[in-house]
Write a structure and sequence with these properties.
Radius of gyration: 29 Å
Number of helices: 26
Largest sheet: 7 strands, mixed
Oligomer: single chain
Length: 687
């Protein structure tokens, strides 16, 4: 039976109009919007015969809706958070990424089969594509260290491996009572764990809301003994599960994650994951007689049952797209939670930098590096420095991240003060500097999982279909003769990418001369850099000098149309070389850009040996185009959606650029850009 069939049966049919009777739905516009996207219209008043009533799970306020639904004999719909929720708990105001919208029951109430239980009991769960998605999804959330709540710290102290993990929950939670358990079960669980593992250490994990002081739990410091330890640190659930020899739970979601981590948890309640042959159940549920694999359990709980929502694009989305979003938010939280002191940042950039890196703690901007370092030490923050402004010696006792624009930047130039939609951060070096290792180099050499490769293929296809580049400038290309065509992109000659990454050829004129010498009979097309054409940066070649070197000059031309029209890109270190690789074109590099040295380009420049050989001298495996693209477009940058004002995945930015729904540049910045252009000759005074 299909999932649609399961949801459309009489017992689980959900009407379009749903009436609500508690203020939570009124106070949470995101909740109303999520239900609207799922096809439901929320109303106040009394339901008609074709309507329904919606309540939140088994909350104390659900009684009002339950009473109305019974009186008017209309369907009752219960909603609950999905199992990947948010960074912070709902009690801190965080909106969920997904909902379980259930016309049968609620997943944690074992008294009545819920839609999730019905799927687990009756769905074939044998579709190979579904199970592949489940296996990939499980591996991905483990690899990304994602759970229901995600305020845990990846560097939090974990007890030494070999312990029995006992999972606490918040006192009075409906998921305990409606799983057939009570407070006494927690004492019974702890006692049983000690009896069944008489020589093992016991670690009691407190609930995230207890750690934050939002709700009490069942265990406290008074329960600690010489062999029982209370873990109140914001530790990774996956790391705790990895170190455990056994897991004991009443009905916590951590029991579900324990199954996914390879455990067979001892369960003292009746949660949704009990009774399918994957748990040791103290109180079995007679009607659950099917034996499932953890992959099937994951497929039902994470892919089939929930309704996932993309909060940036304001639409329903797949499980995988929800993970994309949560992964972006989790990365931002983890990198920014301690806060940053920023220096080397131009004034006009600070608003966007604050929006991207200052969500957890506002950035502290300093102009003086010495004061910035002292400030970072005093406050326990890290340092953010604009890559081109990095001083020679930075302390090793402080986390330093170098910042630069990303590779899908904006519609318009940074030199014209258009704020970026993506920024890269690098704790080792910076991508355009081949004289030292960068984090991007490490990411390029990280093997891709199958789902990461598929995601990258889709991303490249979307990028190509939308004809997107770094700045996304439009402009006609000149008429070009037939025959071999070589595109030569000009660059900003004082740019750090040239100073640090170029070889013997370091000027646009020398580049053109080399291209003409290498291809005397081809059509050479020269594209001046847009910053240079705008008069904002150095590198201009007079038209008289270009005669005889370039057969066509592509003034203000669309770079993607040029790449498509040419056979090869001949460059020092231009990003157009990377964009050409994505489109299957040959690329010759005279310098050492980040995309050179991996076996994808013809390299005539000074490629670092570390990109070719390991420390033992053996050749390195070639990463391939997908690995390069995944590192460059997905793993390395951080993206910011100016509409929702959230961290987001690259797919959101491709959508924004392709549909022109990115926020426009403010009038003030546009006027300042014009003033900057007027006085470009004196840029040394303000750059």
């Amino acid at each position: 039976m299909s999932l649609i069939g399961l949801k459309d049966t009489a017992a689980g049919a959900i009407p379009r109009r749903l009436y609500y009777y508690n203020a939570g739905f009124l106070r949470q516009p995101h909740l109303r919007q999520m239900l609207s996207l799922a096809g439901h219209e929320l109303r106040m008043g009394l339901p008609g015969p074709d309507d329904g009533v919606v309540v939140w799970g088994r909350s104390p306020y659900a009684k009002r809706g339950e009473t109305v639904a019974a009186r008017y004999n209309v369907p009752l719909v219960r909603i609950e958070d999905a199992f990947l929720r948010s960074i912070r708990p709902g009690r801190m105001g965080a909106a969920p990424l997904g909902l379980l919208i259930d016309g049968r029951g609620v997943h944690f109430d074992s008294a009545t089969p819920s839609t999730l239980e019905t799927i687990l009991a009756k769905h074939p769960l044998d579709d190979s594509n579904l199970l592949t998605r489940a296996r990939d999804g499980l591996a991905r959330i483990r690899g990304a260290d994602l759970s229901k709540y995600n305020m845990h710290h990846t560097d939090a102290a974990i007890p030494a491996p070999g312990y029995v993990l006992v999972v606490d929950q918040t006192a009075g939670d409906a998921s305990i009572r409606h799983s057939g358990a009570n407070t006494a079960r927690f004492a019974e669980m702890l006692a049983t764990a000690q009896i069944e593992h008489p020589t093992a250490r016991i670690v009691i994990k407190t609930h995230p809301e207890t750690q934050l002081g939002l709700r009490g739990g069942h265990f406290s410091a008074a329960d600690q003994t010489d062999r029982i330890q209370l873990c109140t640190a914001p530790a990774s659930p996956w790391a705790l599960l990895d170190g455990a020899i056994a897991v004991y739970t009443v009905s916590s979601q951590l029991g579900f994650e324990a199954i996914l981590a390879g455990h067979r948890p001892r369960v003292f309640g009746q949660p949704f994951y009990a009774g399918w042959g994957l748990t040791a159940d103290a109180f079995p549920i007679d009607r659950r007689i099917r034996t499932l694999t953890k992959t099937q359990l994951f497929a039902a709980a994470m892919i089939l049952a929930p309704t996932w929502v993309d909060p940036c694009r304001n639409r329903l989305c797949s499980f995988e797209e929800a993970v994309d979003q949560l992964e972006a938010e989790a990365r931002a939280f983890r990198e920014d939670r301690a806060g940053h002191v920023a220096f080397g940042m131009r004034v006009w950039k600070r608003g966007r930098l604050q929006a991207v890196f200052g969500r957890e703690k506002p950035l502290i901007f300093r102009d003086n590096p010495t004061k910035a370092i002292a400030n970072a030490r005093e406050t326990g923050r890290g340092l953010l420095v604009w890559a081109g402004k990095e001083p020679k010696h930075l302390p090793k006792d402080i986390t330093v991240r170098r910042v630069e624009d990303g590779f899908l930047r904006s519609r318009g130039l940074g030199a014209e003060l258009v704020p970026p939609l993506s920024l890269v951060t690098d704790d080792l070096g910076i991508y355009y500097d081949p004289t030292r290792e960068s984090r991007l180099e490490h990411l390029i050499q990280t093997p891709l999982t199958p789902d990461a490769a598929r995601r990258t293929e889709k991303l490249i296809a979307a990028l190509i279909a939308a004809r997107l580049s770094k700045y996304n400038l439009s402009g006609a290309i000149p008429d070009l003769p037939d025959g071999p065509r070589i595109l030569v992109p000009g660059q900003v000659e004082d740019d750090a990418a040239i100073r640090l990454g170029a070889g013997d050829i370091r000027t646009n004129l020398a580049l053109l001369q080399a291209a003409r010498s290498a291809y005397p009979y081809a059509t050479v097309i020269y594209k001046p850099h847009p910053d240079v054409e705008a008069g904002l940066r150095p590198g201009m070649i007079p038209d008289a000098t270009l005669r005889g070197l370039a057969d066509a000059i592509a003034h203000n031309a669309d770079p993607i149309h040029l790449i498509e029209a040419c056979d090869e890109v001949f460059t020092m270190t231009s990003l157009l070389g990377f964009e050409a690789l994505l489109r299957g074109k040959r690329v010759t590099c005279l310098g050492a850009p980040f995309y050179a040295g991996w076996g994808l380009t013809q390299d005539l420049g000074p490629i670092p040996m570390r990109r070719k050989r390991a420390l033992d001298g053996h050749p390195l495996p070639r990463p391939g185009l997908l690995a390069l693209a995944h590192a460059t477009l997905i793993a390395y940058p951080r993206y910011y959606d100016p509409v929702s004002r959230k961290p987001c995945p690259p797919e959101t930015i491709i959508h924004r650029l392709a549909t022109s729904t990115d926020a426009p540049t403010g009038l003030g910045l546009r006027l300042l850009a014009k003033l900057q252009g007027r006085f470009a000759t004196y840029s040394r005074f303000w750059r």
